[in-house]
């Protein structure tokens, strides 16, 4: 009696497991080519996921309007990683095994990308980074490397930032970095680069994503004699740093990684937003080439973006847009959605006129980063517009 | 190391043994089948599904550990991700940096986490409730941040990559292999959890969870038990973390956010805390649900939150908890009597036994001397009773002897050996057992388990024995049953103790105390709430226990019982011993009569006849009430007319206060009607009854200690509008001049008499139809009582309608118009004050 | 020296924000022994509603503020009704989980309605300079926060000392049964406490918004730190909670000033553990009487 009852409980439990798996695997008809995206769609970094989604969607719609790839339409399958590496790794597995995506796009978080890349390499599915700038994502030491990137690379940005500071007379810059993986990756890069360039750093201070007040950290840097600040943070925390700097009445130059480029930085930081000079791979301000005009028009149509100042993250949109087109090109070239074929085809792309630039041999087996130091421009805000410096 | 439970028939087994064995076997089979099924499913699944199955198993392992802490020991942790992270990092660091084998690292990861658990237990055991929650939250944050900052070791924010997967007999393990290993580990841990739960250690943990104080009173070392629960729990989280590390190949601080701790807690709560399979069900929901919802992309968390709320509403006791509740069958196994066994167990060497010696014990609480230099001797083989009016310090004295309070001075010795001061479990182990005024059984343990765990006196043996050997042999089961039969318990021994009726609780509590093989048994009001027949049987039982060689000490209000069974009676009043001797002498003592009946010079003359018409203000019609299973009132009827002062008399435990609380709406009557001016108020909530004009001045005053005197009175006048209320406060203060001088003083600082006056004043400020006064003279000095009664008499003369309950029966009668005497929840006599005063029923009700 | 003066100024500013939010824990715990564990998300609601009414819809500021506070009060009542009462009535501790779930739901609803990008609340008048300390410009708003925090603590103190409603709240804390006997509706009082708790969180959100960025996740870490502050203060009296807030904020910025920011979180949370180990009822709490 008892055993029978327990067995029934056990049976019910097993059924629950089975039913759950069944639901999770209910794959749709495999007609379109599925393109995966694993990014932060909720939580504090949700806007990065939104920007990438916009760039990818515009590109996919363009491609589909021209008949898709290999006669099949592209379809975007989004998964939320909640900025958590294990969640991202799980989602990547689901996309690969259950959704059978042709490639996976990544989001803002370097650790999530680092958790996904080994899976991509093992399963031979191309991984396309369009935001996270952590150096080891593409330089991961795998024999067959499936990680590609159309985005900045921290070490290169760090070099550019310090060189810019040096050129403009800074002798002893101080680092003010967000306390997260991105900040840490840049801390390493900036320290190494400073040593190479013979620059002494006044100090390295970190602050939290949700810090309201950063004056204690800034005061330490000021007392240590910092004559420039190198900022690595996204728009919201970056703005908090600028507000603290303003309150201290400290007129020190600020040179920033690209984080402040999105998310209404001028609105958040207030009057001193224009004091920040920052790196950018692309700007929707100024004269646009046809591609830029088209993307802006699509943004306005699909997401009611009113002009370039409404683009929540120009870099995320532009990188995702170009990366999607590059990937589609490779699939077409490969004539297949098989991962190794796409990888080889990516290496073979010769020239492609994109939004950010015209790519010449963007990927090779030695360098799977499409963008390099030459693609970085220094800009600053003027009101709500971004204008180039020099 | 034997894992199967032997079904041993050599010793005539208690009937429950084979059934327990069958149930355990069924459970183990179910666990094995479940794990095998999951492994089979994993075999046919793709890499993603294998990964998810492995995650379910790993999460369930953390859940099993947290279940030890929360489900067995009753301690909350909102920082379990810290232990999980420690395990994961230990594995990641040792396997990548030092190339150690995972199989060697796995136990080390558990040990590292366990050490952290032991360290966290130090602060965690000192705090409770939200404070404990905060300590554990802070712990989780410290670990997460440390992982980010200790870059050299942990790789900082970017974590540790490429954690190698182990080989198993030369086979490289993948998601499937790790999943199967995790499932096997989980199955093993579930079996061990089931064994731990039913072992002495598990019983001790559950005992501390159900009744902290009572667990100490049977010799359980609370600190040791709870520390162990933390350590086990942390160990399991640690090995789960290590397995997680090799499954994902990657760890970073962001893998271990605060929210993960909440998720772990959910695993246990959704599954059912304390159940064996609960964490499995919980892990399935918590891991699988988000996967099923993954197509919702950014809306997943929203739906997860909503579904979570739904689950919490629907099955608050957890999924497995709900299933178990529905499946539980009433077992009907009675205890087997075996008196010689009990006698052999409890018999005391009378030549050596000198009993309990108390010498000059004293303790003060915030300036009040609760017990003042009390000395007494309770000899072995004798029943010693401690009596005295409420508030005399009797229970405090018991608490001092038992080590629940640390005395300011004085000594307690057992058989001439001094007992440790203020360490309850050590005093219990030395041979002092007790029962409690309100029974404190381990409610979620069965009757048998309550007694079994007490036999250990806190000596639980090695943990390995608990897990791998058979813990409760037939001998101890037979003894437990014999003890239950000895105290007269006649129900099933497999019932949860929390479901027992009141009488049985008393009996089981005595059996539990006896199971510690004490030399002194102390009982705090054992007869409270018992019927006459039950009380007689109890008296007989106490004599039999004394006869076995124990010193029996009781606190009791039932004078029939006290006078009938005691060898020696000690009378306390206001914390001091006033008389001690044989029952006959004590009964005849004038001081005792004064203390109990308020006899002697204290009597107030009535200053005039009753004012008021014959309208019935309050009528009680056939009211019955109970506390849980304990019936307190049966078919009570009485009425109070306008301007009348009616006294309600009876011994402690007769149900007077319950009736007062029932009228005021604080205790819901089961049957009957309570009519105020002819309208039934029996079902209204207390605050509405108060607003209708019934004011209870509760027992023990219950003034608001932090509010001033004037504000306390203001609280009474809340129903009036602000200006009227202010006027009413002034009027009442004018009525009680002694309060006028104290109006701005905090009520908590007043003396007992002043507080009583304040409580009455507060009650009058509501301009009530009727004032219910519950034990106003309790714990007050005679002079104060006199002035209090003068005030009551004046109020009566002014026409206030009063229903008065007081221990001091003669005093109450001296100012009352009429009186009711109740005994065991029934009215046994009513009539005019004069009639009742001269009736034998009154003295019998009080002094036996 | 300047370093520590300015750190202290910063710390007091931060600490009063924690304290203000922690007062919301205090009012509900005092009356019902429960709290809205996701108090941080109620704070976020206040800021988001203030932005929506004031900036997006362009309502007059006073209207926007009152409307935002009204929403927070309503949310407080909802939390009590569906997240706390169903569990507290059964004597279950699951309200803790239920309020966390409600916070999760609220944050995600806001994420999809308010938007994913953080917004900045304009604060021209309030950000004018009030005074300078240690070379640090202190704006009117930054002075406003501790002032409002202290005013609320004073107001709570005065209300409980001089108003009948306030006193009856205290009465409930001190003796719920006796309070019922005085005709006080304890259930209504608990609902009221949650409404007030929502109000405080809303005020905190509106005050912090101009100094901070408005987004759906702005309250999470704040909420946890405020809980730490409430616990450290002993959740027993408004003063203790406010003072604990100031101490926590000052500790944070002084540790950062002295040792750099690396170990701030570890040290502050570590101190919380040590403080509670030494004083298990909080720094300003009183131990309950051990009953047997």
Provide a compact summary of the structure.
Chain B is of the alpha/beta class. Chain B has 35 helices and 22 strands. Chain B has 3 domains: 16-327, ABC transporter involved in vitamin B12 uptake, BtuC (Orthogonal Bundle), CATH 1.10.3470; 339-591, P-loop containing nucleotide triphosphate hydrolases (Rossmann fold, 3-Layer(aba) Sandwich), CATH 3.40.50.300; 642-668 and 686-847, Rossmann fold, CATH 3.40.50.
Kindly state the percentage of residues in helix of chain C.
Answer: over 70%
CATH architecture of chain C: Orthogonal Bundle
> Helical content of chain A, roughly?
40-55%
Q: How many DSSP H or I helices of chain A?
A: 12
The CATH architecture of the largest domain in chain A would be 3-Layer(aba) Sandwich
Mean of pLDDT of chain C: 87
Q: According to CATH, what is the topology of the largest domain in chain A?
A: Rossmann fold
**Through-space gap between termini of chain C:** 54 Å
N/C terminus separation of chain A: 85 Å
**Largest sheet of chain C at a glance?**
2 strands, antiparallel
What fraction strand of chain A?
15-25%
Largest sheet of chain A: 7 strands, mixed
Radius of gyration of chain A: 23 Å
How many individual helices of chain C?
11
What is the residue-mean pLDDT of chain A, rounded to a whole number? 88
SS class of chain C: mainly alpha
Question: Which structural class should the secondary elements of chain A be placed in?
Answer: alpha/beta
How many separate structural domains of chain C? 1
Number of domains of chain A: 2
Low-confidence stretches of chain C: 288-292
Beta strands of chain A, count? 14
């Amino acid at each position: 009696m008892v055993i029978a009852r327990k067995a029934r409980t056990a049976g019910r439990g097993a059924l629950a497991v089975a039913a759950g798996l069944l639901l999770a695997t209910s794959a749709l008809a495999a007609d379109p080519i599925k393109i995966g995206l694993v990014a932060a769609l909720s939580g504090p970094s949700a806007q990065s996921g939104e920007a990438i989604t916009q760039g990818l969607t515009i590109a996919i719609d363009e491609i589909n309007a021209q008949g898709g790839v290999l006669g099949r339409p592209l379809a975007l399958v989004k998964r939320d990683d909640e900025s958590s590496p294990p969640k991202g790794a799980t989602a990547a597995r689901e996309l690969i095994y259950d959704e059978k995506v042709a490639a996976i796009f990544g989001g803002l978080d370097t650790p999530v990308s680092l958790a996904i890349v080994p899976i991509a390499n093992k399963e031979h599915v191309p991984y396309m980074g369009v935001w996270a700038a952590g150096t080891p994502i593409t330089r991961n030491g795998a024999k067959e490397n499936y990680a590609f990137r159309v985005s900045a690379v921290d070490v290169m940005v760090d070099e550019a930032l310090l060189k810019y500071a040096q050129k403009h007379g800074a002798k002893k810059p101080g680092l003010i970095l967000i306390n997260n993986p991105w900040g840490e990756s840049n801390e390493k890069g900036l320290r190494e680069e400073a040593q190479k360039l013979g620059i002494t750093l006044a100090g390295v201070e970190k602050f939290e994503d949700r810090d309201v007040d950063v004056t204690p950290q800034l005061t330490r840097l000021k007392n240590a004699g910092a004559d420039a600040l190198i900022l690595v943070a996204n728009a919201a925390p970056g703005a908090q740093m600028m507000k603290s700097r303003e309150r201290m009445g400290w007129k020190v130059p600020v040179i920033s990684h690209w984080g402040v480029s999105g998310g209404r930085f001028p609105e958040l930081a207030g009057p001193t937003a224009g004091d920040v000079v920052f790196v950018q791979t692309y700007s929707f301000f100024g004269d646009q080439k046809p591609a830029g005009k088209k993307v802006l028009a699509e943004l306005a149509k699909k997401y009611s973006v009113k002009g370039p100042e409404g683009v929540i993250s120009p870099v995320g949109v532009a990188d995702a847009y170009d990366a999607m087109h590059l990937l589609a090109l490779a699939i077409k070239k490969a004539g297949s959605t098989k991962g190794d074929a796409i990888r080889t085809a990516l290496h073979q792309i010769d020239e492609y006129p994109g939004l950010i630039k015209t790519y010449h041999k963007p990927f090779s087996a030695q360098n799977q980063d499409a963008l390099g130091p030459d693609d970085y421009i220094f800009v600053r805000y003027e009101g709500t517009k971004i204008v180039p410096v020099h | 190391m034997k894992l199967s439970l032997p079904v041993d028939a050599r010793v005539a087994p208690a009937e429950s043994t084979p059934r327990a064995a069958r149930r355990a076997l069924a459970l183990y089979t179910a666990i094995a089948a479940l794990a095998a099924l999951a492994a089979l499913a994993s075999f046919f699944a793709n890499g993603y599904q294998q990964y998810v199955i492995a995650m379910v198993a790993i999460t369930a392992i953390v859940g099993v550990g947290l279940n030890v802490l929360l489900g067995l020991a009753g301690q909350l942790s909102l920082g379990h991700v810290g232990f999980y992270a420690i395990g994961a990092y230990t594995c990641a660091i040792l396997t990548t940096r030092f190339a150690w084998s995972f199989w060697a690292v796995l136990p080390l990861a558990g040990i590292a986490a366990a050490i952290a658990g032991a360290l966290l237990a130090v602060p965690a055991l000192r705090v409770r409730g939200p404070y404990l929650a905060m300590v554990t939250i802070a712990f989780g944050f410290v670990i997460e941040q440390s992982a980010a900052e200790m870059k050299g070791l942990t790789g900082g924010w970017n974590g540790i990559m490429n954690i190698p997967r182990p080989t198993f007999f030369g086979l490289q393990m993948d998601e499937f292999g790790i999943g199967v290993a995790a499932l096997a580990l989980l199955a093993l841990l579930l079996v061990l959890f089931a064994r731990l739960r039913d072992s002495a250690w598990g019983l001790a943990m559950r005992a501390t969870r159900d009744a902290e104080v009572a667990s100490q009173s049977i010799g359980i070392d609370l600190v040791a038990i709870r520390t162990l629960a933390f350590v086990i729990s942390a160990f399991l989280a640690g090995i789960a973390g290590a397995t997680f590390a090799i499954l994902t190949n990657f760890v970073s601080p962001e893998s271990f956010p605060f929210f993960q701790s909440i998720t772990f807690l959910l695993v246990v709560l959704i599954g059912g805390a304390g159940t064996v399979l609960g964490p499995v069900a919980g892990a399935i929901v918590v891991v699988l649900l988000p996967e099923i919802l993954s197509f919702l992309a950014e809306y997943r968390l929203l739906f997860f939150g909503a579904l979570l709320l739904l689950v919490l509403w629907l099955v608050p006791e957890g999924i497995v908890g709900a299933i178990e509740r529905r499946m539980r069958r009433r077992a009907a196994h009675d205890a087997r009597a075996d008196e010689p066994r009990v006698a052999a167990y409890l018999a005391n060497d009378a030549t050596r036994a000198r009993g309990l010696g108390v010498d000059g014990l004293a303790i003060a609480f915030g300036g009040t001397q609760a017990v003042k230099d009390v000395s007494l001797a309770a000899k072995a083989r004798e029943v010693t009773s401690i009596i005295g009016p409420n508030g005399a310090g009797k229970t405090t004295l018991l608490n001092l002897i038992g080590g629940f309070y640390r005395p300011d001075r004085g000594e307690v010795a057992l058989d001439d050996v001094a007992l440790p001061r203020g360490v309850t479990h050590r005093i219990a182990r030395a041979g002092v057992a007790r029962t409690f005024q309100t029974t404190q059984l381990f409610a979620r343990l069965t009757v048998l388990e309550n007694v079994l765990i007490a036999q250990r006196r806190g000596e639980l043996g090695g943990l390995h024995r608990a897990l791998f050997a058979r813990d409760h042999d037939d001998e101890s089961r037979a003894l437990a049953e014999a003890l239950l039969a000895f105290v007269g318990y006649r129900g099933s021994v497999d019932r949860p103790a929390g479901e027992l009726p009141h009488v049985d609780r008393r009996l089981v509590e005595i059996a539990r105390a006896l199971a510690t093989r004490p030399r002194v048994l102390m009982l705090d009001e054992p007869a409270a709430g018992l019927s006459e027949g039950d009380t007689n049987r109890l008296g007989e039982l106490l004599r039999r226990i004394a006869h076995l060689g124990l010193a029996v000490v009781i606190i009791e209000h039932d004078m029939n019982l006290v006078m009938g069974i005691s060898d020696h009676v000690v009378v306390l009043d206001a914390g001091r011993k006033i008389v001690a001797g044989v029952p006959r002498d004590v009964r005849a003592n004038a001081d005792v009569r004064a203390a109990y009946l308020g006899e002697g010079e204290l009597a107030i003359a009535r200053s005039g006849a009753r004012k008021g018409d014959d309208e019935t203000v309050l009528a009680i019609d056939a009211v019955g009430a109970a506390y849980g299973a304990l019936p307190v009132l049966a078919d009570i009827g009485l009425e109070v007319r306008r301007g009348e002062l009616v006294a309600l008399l009876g011994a402690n435990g007769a149900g007077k206060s319950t009736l007062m609380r029932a009228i005021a709406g604080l205790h819901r009557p089961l049957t009957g009607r309570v009519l105020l001016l002819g309208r039934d108020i029996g079902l209204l909530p207390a605050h509405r009854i108060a607003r209708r004009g019934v004011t209870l001045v509760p027992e023990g005053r219950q003034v608001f200690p932090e509010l001033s005197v004037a504000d306390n009175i203001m609280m009474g006048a809340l129903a009036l509008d602000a200006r009227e209320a202010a006027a009413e406060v002034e009027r009442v203060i004018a009525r009680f001049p002694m309060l006028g001088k104290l109006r701005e003083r905090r009520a908590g600082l007043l003396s007992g008499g002043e507080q009583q006056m304040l409580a009455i004043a507060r009650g009058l400020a509501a301009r009530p139809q009727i004032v219910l006064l519950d034990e106003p003279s309790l714990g007050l000095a005679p002079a104060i009582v006199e002035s209090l009664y003068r005030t009551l008499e004046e109020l009566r003369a002014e026409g206030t309608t009063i229903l008065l309950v007081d221990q001091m029966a003669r005093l109450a009668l001296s100012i009352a118009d009429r009186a009711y005497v109740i005994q065991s929840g029934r009215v046994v006599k009513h009539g005019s004050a004069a009639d009742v005063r001269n009736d034998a029923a009154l003295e019998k009700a009080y002094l036996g | 020296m300047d370093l520590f003066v300015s750190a202290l100024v910063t710390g007091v500013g931060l600490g009063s924000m924690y304290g203000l939010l922690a007062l919301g824990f205090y009012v509900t715990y005092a009356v019902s022994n429960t709290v809205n564990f996701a108090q941080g998300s109620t704070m976020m609601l206040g800021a988001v509603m203030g932005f929506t009414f004031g900036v997006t819809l362009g309502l007059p500021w006073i209207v926007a503020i009152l409307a935002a506070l009204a929403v927070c009060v309503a949310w407080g009542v909802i939390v009590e009704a569906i997240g706390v009462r169903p569990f507290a009535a059964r004597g279950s501790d699951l309200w803790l989980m239920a309020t966390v779930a409600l916070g999760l739901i609220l944050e995600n609803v806001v994420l999809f309605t308010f938007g994913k990008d953080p917004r900045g609340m304009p604060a021209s008048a309030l950000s004018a300079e009030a005074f300078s300390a240690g070379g640090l410009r202190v704006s009117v708003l930054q002075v406003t926060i501790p002032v409002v925090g202290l005013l609320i603590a004073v107001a709570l103190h005065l209300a409980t000392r001089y108003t009948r409603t306030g006193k009856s709240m205290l009465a409930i804390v001190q003796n719920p049964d006796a309070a019922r006997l005085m005709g006080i509706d304890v259930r209504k009082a608990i609902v009221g406490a949650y409404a007030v708790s929502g109000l405080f969180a809303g005020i905190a959100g509106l005050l912090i918004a101009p100094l901070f960025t408005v987004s759906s996740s702005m309250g999470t870490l704040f909420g946890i730190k405020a809980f730490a502050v409430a616990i450290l203060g002993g959740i027993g009296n408004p003063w203790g909670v406010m003072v604990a807030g100031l101490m926590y904020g000052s500790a944070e910025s002084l540790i950062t000033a002295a040792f750099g920011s690396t170990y701030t979180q570890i040290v502050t949370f570590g101190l919380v553990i040590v403080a509670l180990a030494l004083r298990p009822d909080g720094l300003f709490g009183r131990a309950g009487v051990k009953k047997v």
